[in-house]
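Help needed: design a sequence for this.
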């Protein structure tokens, strides 16, 4: 059988992934980076919605969405119709050999499929069930639809600079990365002494995590202070400036960095810094002012070629490793591993 041997602290952990689009697949990609094996369960009628959307790259069955390829490389695809008895039976067979189930349906969908959490956790005493949603399983908005931009809005992250971010912070950081952290902690707790008290049902809401990430913002409020200006664009020594070929960031706050910057700059007010930096290139300022925390702003196409990124071995081909570790493997075709995986679990039972 062609299962890739996982390497890492989650070596031997099997994750069943019912999720689609970005947050859940990114969560399980991060678990792969820690060594877990991920079996992606997809609807036989088209699979994950991302598969058929542009932009496309070559896939096992023809053109496939580039985002899908990045988020699901190295996984195994099993096609099951969970609305059918046969599909539910197939999922139960997979869960008998699994450690984690990740799902990202709206609250109530798993129950309507006849797969309520209580049933799954009772039948599989070692299973951890991670329910990843935007708003959470409870509250007046729990059953509403949502997208990354809305979660950021309600969490208070867009008020100062109300523009659309360049990546999906709620999906990736508030959702996928935080979900992987919670699942890893639950696996650790499950196998410790006193495991009967470990959390096995995880209600992971992107809204919750985005609010929780803002410790310093709410500390300002608790202190009765106005919103921070130093780290949010109000300080000329912590800001962004144009150069002849793009922009650089300046973060010369601490005395040593300020001294290094001041030794070359003609002045420390915003206009003087802008004029000074506007006369050189990004590379020039990186070379001359690196000790003052001056860093070039790179486009995504430039990142993989930067010497620091190359030295850290952050890419495999054109794709970066997830933040938890390398993931290398082919993109699965829809249902490519259905027969092999069901045979494996049924023959071992």
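Sure. Designed sequence:
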């Amino acid at each position: 059988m062609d299962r890739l041997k996982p390497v890492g602290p989650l070596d031997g952990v099997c994750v069943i992934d019912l999720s689609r689009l970005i947050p859940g697949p990114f969560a399980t990609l991060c678990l792969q980076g820690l060594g877990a094996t991920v079996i992606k369960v997809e609807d036989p009628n088209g699979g994950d919605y991302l598969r058929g959307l542009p932009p496309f790259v070559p896939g096992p069955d023809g053109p496939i969405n580039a985002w899908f390829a990045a988020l699901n490389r190295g996984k195994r695809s099993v096609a099951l119709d969970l609305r059918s008895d046969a599909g539910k039976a197939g999922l139960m067979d997979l869960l008998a050999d699994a450690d984690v189930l990740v799902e990202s349906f709206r609250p109530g969908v798993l129950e309507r499929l006849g797969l309520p959490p209580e049933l799954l956790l009772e039948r599989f005493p070692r299973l951890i069930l991670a329910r990843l949603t935007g708003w959470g399983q409870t509250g007046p908005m729990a059953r509403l639809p949502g997208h990354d931009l809305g979660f950021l809005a309600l969490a208070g992250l867009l008020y100062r600079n109300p523009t659309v971010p360049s990546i999906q912070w709620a999906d990736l950081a508030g959702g996928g990365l935080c979900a992987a952290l919670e699942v890893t902690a639950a696996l650790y707790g499950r196998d410790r002494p006193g495991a009967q008290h470990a959390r096995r049902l995880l209600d992971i809401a992107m809204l919750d995590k985005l609010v929780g990430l803002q410790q310093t913002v709410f500390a300002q409020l608790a202190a009765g202070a106005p919103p921070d200006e130093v780290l949010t664009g109000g300080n000329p020594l912590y800001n962004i400036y144009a150069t002849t070929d793009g922009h650089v960031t300046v973060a010369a706050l601490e005395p040593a960095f300020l001294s290094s910057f001041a030794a070359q700059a003609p002045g420390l007010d915003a206009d003087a810094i802008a004029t000074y930096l506007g006369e050189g290139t990004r590379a020039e300022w990186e070379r001359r002012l690196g000790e003052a925390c001056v860093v070039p702003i790179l486009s995504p196409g430039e990142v993989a070629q930067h010497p620091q990124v190359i030295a850290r071995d952050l890419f495999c081909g054109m794709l970066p490793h997830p933040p938890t570790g390398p993931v290398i493997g082919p993109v699965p075709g829809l249902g490519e591993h259905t027969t092999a995986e069901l045979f494996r679990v049924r023959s071992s039972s």
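Residues 1-6 have pLDDT under 50 and may be disordered.
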